Amino acid sequence: MADHYQNNIYHQGGGDSYGTYGEGGGHDGYGYQADYPPQEEDAASDVTEGHDEEDQMYEGEYQGIPHPDEVKAAQRAARAKTRSAGSATSELEELSEQYEDIMEDCGHGRFQWTLFVVLGLALMADGVECFVVAFVLPSAEKDLCLSNAEKGMLGLVVFLSMMVGAFFWGGMADKVGRRRCLIVALAINCVFAFLSSFAQGYGFFLFFRLLSGIGIGGTVPIVYSYFSEFLQMDKRGEHLSWLCMFWMIGGIYASFTAWGIIPRYGEETGSLQHHQPICEVAMVTLQVCVCVYVHAGWGFSMGTEFQFHSWRVFVLVAALPAIGSLVGLTFMPESPRFLLENAKHDEAWMILKQVHDTNWRAKGQPEKVFTVTHIKAPKTAEDEFIEIQSATGTPVQRWAVRSLTLCKLVLKNVASLLSAELRFATLFMAIIWFCMAFSYYGLSVWFPDMIKHLQYEEYESRVKVFHRERVENFHFNFSLENQVHKEGEYIRDKFISIEMKSVKFEDSLFEDCRFEDIRSTDTVFENCTFRSTFFYNTDLWEEKFVDCKMENTSFEKNKHGCHLDTMEENDVLIYLVSFLGSLAVLPGNIISALFMEKIGRVKIIGGSMLISAGCTFFLFLSFTQSAIIALQCLFCGVSVAAWNGIEVVTVELYPASKRATAFGVLNALCKLAAILGSSIFASFVGVTKAIPILLSFTALVCGGLVALRLPDTRQKILH
C-alpha cells in the first residue's frame, strides 16, 4: 500500500498549465514507465521478492513509536488536506510539495554526504580567500616593495572582488544552473590564484587577486542554494548549519599552512645571502639557482628577475580546497529543482532516481524502487532563449544577443526581489546581513590591530634614550635596537655588519665614520650632519635621511629593494590570532546545528546577535593582549550561530527561481559592510575604543531586533 500511495500521489491535480512527465503514450510526456511497469497492489517485483513488508517487524512497534514511513505519510496527508481545504493551489506550491515528497522518498544518505564534502571544500576555499592576503602581506610587501597605500588596496580588492562575484554568480546561477556556475567560478579562482603566485610586480599581483576574488565570490550564494535543494525539510536547518563549519575549517587551514610555509622573512633572505656563493656557482652551469631551507621556508630564483619566495608557495597551497571542490563537482549532478523550474523534466527525473538509488543502496536496501513516474512542473522555458536558439547571424552575433538577453533576465530577477510579496523579506534580510557583517568584519580587523598597538606601546615604553653622547674610535659590532640618540657626536667610528632596528638619530654628527653591511628596520636619521663618512653595502637609502647635511660623503654598492628590511618578530601573532578566532567558532557551530530545528532560526539569529552585542561592552575592560584575544574568541563563538541562522533563513525565504540571486545580492551587501566596517574600525585603533565598541553594539542590537520580526521557516517547504 505504501508503494501504491507513493506512486499515485503525483497523479493528483490535472491542469493544462503543467507539462506531464512520464505519461506513456502521450505526445508531451517522457515514457519512463516502460522501465517500471505498473504493478498490482499486492504484486511483488523480482527485486522485492522475499522482502514482504508485512513479514518485517519494526523494532519500535512495541514501544509505541510510529514508523518513519507512517510519519511521512501523515505529513503528506496533512499537506494534502490543507491543499483541499484552502484555495486553489498555485503551480509553484504544487511543484514544491511534490518535490518535498520526492526528497523524503529519496532519504538522506550517501549522496547528500558526498555533496556535503564537495560543497564544503568550496566554502572552505571562500574562508581561505579572506585570509590569504593578510597572511602574505608581511612578506609580499618586502618582495613587491609595497607602500602603505598599495597594501591597503590589496586588502580592499579582496572584498570588492568577492562582492562583484557574489552579485554576478548568484544571478547567473538562477538562469544558467547552480553546478555549471560553481564550476566556472571555482575554475576562475584556481587559475588566477595560480597566476598570482608567480606575479613579480604589484600590478599583476593585484589584477590576478582581483579576478581570483571574483571567482571565489560566487561560492557562498551558490553552495547554500545548491545544497538546500537536495535536503528534505526536517534535515535542512541542521545540515546547512553543519555546512557552515567548513568556513571555520578554511580559517584554520589557512592559519596552519601559513604558519608552516611562510618563514620569518629576515631568516629567508638571510639564508639566501648566506648561500649566495653556492648559488652563483650553480648559476654558471645551470642558469638557475634553487635553494631549499628546512627551517626558514623555501624558495627559488631564476636569475635576478624572477624570485619565488615561500609566501608564493602558500598562495598555491591555499588554492587546494578550491581545486578539490572543482574535481568533486565534475561527478555531481545539477540541482533537479533548478531543472524542473526550467522545464527539463527528463534530466531532473534521472538525477532524482540517482539520489534515491545511491542512498538506499548505501543503507543496504537496494530493493527499494524509485516509484515516481509522473512529475508535474510549470512550463517555464524562457521565450527569449527559444528565440535566440533559432536566431540567424554569425556566431559572435548570436553570442552577443544571448549574453545581452541573459543579463536582462538576471537584472529582472534582481528587481523582482523588491516585488510586493518579497519586499519586506528583502528589506529585513538586508538590514540583518549589513549589521552583522559591519560588526563582525569590523571587529575582526580591530582585534589584531589593537593587539599590535598594545605591543607597540609596550615596545616604546622600553626605549633607551642617549643624550649628548660622544664616541670616538669605536667599533660597533653589535646590533642596535629600540634606541634614540640625541645630539651625539661620533668621530672615526665603524658600524660594520650590524642590524639597526627601531633606531633614531637626532641632531647628531658623524665624522670620518664608516657604515658597512648594514641591515635596518624602522631606522631614521633626522637633522644629522655627515662629514667624510663612507657607506658601503648598506640599505640606508636617502629616504632614511631627513633634513641631513652630507659633506664629502659617499655611498658604494648600496642595497636596493625594500625586501632587505627585517621582519617584525611578532608577525607570528597574525597566524595565532586568526587560528584561535577560527577555532573558537567550533562550539557555536555545533550548538547552532543541533538546536537549529528545535529552537528555530529566528530565535538563534536574534539571540546570538543580542548576546554578541553584550560581549562588545566587555571590551571597555580589556587592557591586555590576552584579554582582547579571549574576548575575540567569545565574540566569534557567539556570532557564528547568528551567521548560520542568517544563511539558513536566506535560503528558505526565497523561491527556487530567485534563491541564488537573493543570496548573491545579500552576500554582496555583506562584503560592502565588511569594507566599511574594517575601514572605520581600523581608523580608531590607538585613538579611542569607545567609537568602535558603540558602533558594533548599535549595529548588532539593531540587526537582532529586526531578526526577531522574521517569520519562522522551520516547517516551510522550499518554493
Automatic annotation (TrEMBL):
Matches recorded under Gene3D superfamilies: E3 ubiquitin-protein ligase SopA, MFS general substrate transporter like domains
Major facilitator superfamily (MFS) profile domain location: 115-714
Annotated Gly residues bias: 12-29
Compositionally biased intervals (Polar residues): 1-10
Lineage: Eukaryota, Metazoa, Chordata, Craniata, Vertebrata
Name listed for the protein in its UniProt record: Synaptic vesicle glycoprotein 2B-like isoform X1
GO molecular function: transmembrane transporter activity
Subcellular localization, as worded in the UniProt entry: Cytoplasmic vesicle, Secretory vesicle, Synaptic vesicle membrane
Cellular component terms (Gene Ontology): neuron projection; synaptic vesicle membrane
Family named by the database record: Belongs to the major facilitator superfamily.
Superkingdom assignment: Eukaryota
Main subcellular location: membrane
Region (Disordered): 1-56, 72-92
Listed InterPro entries: LD_SV2, MFS, MFS_dom, MFS_sugar_transport-like, MFS_trans_sf, Sugar_transporter_CS
UniProtKB keywords: Cytoplasmic vesicle, Glycoprotein, Membrane, Neurotransmitter transport, Phosphoprotein, Synapse, Transmembrane, Transmembrane helix, Transport
Keyword rRNA processing tagged: no
Membrane topology term: Multi-pass membrane protein
Residue intervals passing through the bilayer: 113-140, 152-169, 181-199, 205-227, 239-262, 311-332, 422-443, 573-595, 602-621, 661-684, 690-710
A biological process term (GO) from this entry: neurotransmitter transport
